[in-house]
């Protein structure tokens, strides 16, 4: 089965954001991945609700919103209203993860959780039935262009086994350092969705790069 591709708009040209969103509309991308950073949960600040709304106005692909922020529950409805089709919160930022996931689902959109490289997938065992997506961070969150963490493959395999054992339909998303070298191994391990930022937007032909990832 072909992977779903979610180019990260964080790596786009912010001075030409509409142009880059329209390029993604015409590409083989399945989602547009939107990284929200607050400078507290991660050591970087990206953009927030108004820019998400602006992206949504031009996007014809679902917005896959990744909240790398503290107190994410306070912003779920705002990001849904800004156009999110999927909202992923960080396991490490949620005091009551299942309550957060329930709140997302009550908004009528898909619920995801993201986990940092040091967080074991086994901690999600009691939440899988509530999850449409698990985003495994394959770099430390906060900045694009980092080197892929090799331990990711085994995490994907373990999570895939957990999902199959429970009979869930949860998708496994990989975020960070994804390229044509590691994408086939990630798919073999059980990944479903590949997030690619710098690899796509820094290439000479982003649409072609997306197609190559789609057809690995």
Automatic annotation (TrEMBL):
<feature type="binding site">
    <location>
        <position position="177"/>
    </location>
    <ligand>
        <name>substrate</name>
    </ligand>
</feature>
<keyword id="KW-0464">Manganese</keyword>
<protein>
    <recommendedName>
        <fullName>Ribulose-phosphate 3-epimerase</fullName>
        <ecNumber>5.1.3.1</ecNumber>
    </recommendedName>
</protein>
<feature type="active site" description="Proton donor">
    <location>
        <position position="175"/>
    </location>
</feature>
<comment type="function">
    <text>Catalyzes the reversible epimerization of D-ribulose 5-phosphate to D-xylulose 5-phosphate.</text>
</comment>
<dbReference type="GO" id="GO:0046872">
    <property type="term" value="F:metal ion binding"/>
</dbReference>
<dbReference type="Pfam" id="PF00834">
    <property type="entry name" value="Ribul_P_3_epim"/>
</dbReference>
<dbReference type="GO" id="GO:0005737">
    <property type="term" value="C:cytoplasm"/>
</dbReference>
<dbReference type="GO" id="GO:0004750">
    <property type="term" value="F:D-ribulose-phosphate 3-epimerase activity"/>
</dbReference>
<feature type="binding site">
    <location>
        <position position="35"/>
    </location>
    <ligand>
        <name>a divalent metal cation</name>
    </ligand>
</feature>
<comment type="similarity">
    <text>Belongs to the ribulose-phosphate 3-epimerase family.</text>
</comment>
<dbReference type="GO" id="GO:0006098">
    <property type="term" value="P:pentose-phosphate shunt"/>
</dbReference>
<dbReference type="InterPro" id="IPR011060">
    <property type="entry name" value="RibuloseP-bd_barrel"/>
</dbReference>
<keyword id="KW-0119">Carbohydrate metabolism</keyword>
<keyword id="KW-0479">Metal-binding</keyword>
<feature type="binding site">
    <location>
        <position position="66"/>
    </location>
    <ligand>
        <name>substrate</name>
    </ligand>
</feature>
<dbReference type="InterPro" id="IPR013785">
    <property type="entry name" value="Aldolase_TIM"/>
</dbReference>
<keyword id="KW-0170">Cobalt</keyword>
<dbReference type="InterPro" id="IPR026019">
    <property type="entry name" value="Ribul_P_3_epim"/>
</dbReference>
<dbReference type="GO" id="GO:0019323">
    <property type="term" value="P:pentose catabolic process"/>
</dbReference>
<keyword id="KW-0413">Isomerase</keyword>
<feature type="binding site">
    <location>
        <begin position="175"/>
        <end position="177"/>
    </location>
    <ligand>
        <name>substrate</name>
    </ligand>
</feature>
<feature type="binding site">
    <location>
        <position position="66"/>
    </location>
    <ligand>
        <name>a divalent metal cation</name>
    </ligand>
</feature>
<keyword id="KW-0862">Zinc</keyword>
<feature type="binding site">
    <location>
        <position position="8"/>
    </location>
    <ligand>
        <name>substrate</name>
    </ligand>
</feature>
<feature type="binding site">
    <location>
        <begin position="142"/>
        <end position="145"/>
    </location>
    <ligand>
        <name>substrate</name>
    </ligand>
</feature>
<dbReference type="InterPro" id="IPR000056">
    <property type="entry name" value="Ribul_P_3_epim-like"/>
</dbReference>
<feature type="active site" description="Proton acceptor">
    <location>
        <position position="35"/>
    </location>
</feature>
<feature type="binding site">
    <location>
        <position position="175"/>
    </location>
    <ligand>
        <name>a divalent metal cation</name>
    </ligand>
</feature>
<comment type="pathway">
    <text>Carbohydrate degradation.</text>
</comment>
<feature type="binding site">
    <location>
        <begin position="197"/>
        <end position="198"/>
    </location>
    <ligand>
        <name>substrate</name>
    </ligand>
</feature>
<feature type="binding site">
    <location>
        <position position="33"/>
    </location>
    <ligand>
        <name>a divalent metal cation</name>
    </ligand>
</feature>
């Amino acid at each position: 089965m072909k992977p779903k591709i979610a180019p990260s708009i964080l790596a786009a040209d912010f001075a030409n954001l509409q142009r880059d969103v329209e390029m993604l509309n015409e590409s083989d991308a399945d989602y547009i991945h939107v990284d929200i950073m607050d400078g507290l949960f991660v050591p970087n600040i990206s953009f927030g609700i108004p820019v998400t709304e602006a992206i949504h106005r031009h996007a014809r692909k679902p917005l896959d919103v990744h909240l790398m922020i503290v107190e994410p529950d306070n912003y779920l409805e705002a990001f849904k209203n800004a156009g999110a089709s999927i909202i992923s919160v960080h396991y490490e930022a949620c005091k009551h993860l299942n309550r957060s996931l329930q709140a997302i689902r009550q908004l009528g959109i898909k619920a995801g959780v993201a986990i940092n490289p040091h967080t074991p997938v086994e901690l999600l065992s009691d939440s899988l039935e509530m999850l449409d997506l698990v985003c495994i961070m394959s770099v430390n969150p906060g900045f694009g262009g980092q080197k892929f963490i090799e331990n990711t493959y085994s995490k994907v395999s373990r999570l895939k086994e957990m999902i199959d054992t429970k009979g869930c339909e949860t998708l496994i998303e990989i975020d960070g350092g994804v390229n044509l070298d590691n994408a086939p191994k990630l798919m073999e391990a059980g990944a479903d969705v590949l997030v690619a930022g710098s690899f796509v937007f820094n290439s000479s032909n982003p649409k072609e790069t997306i197609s190559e990832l789609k057809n690995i």
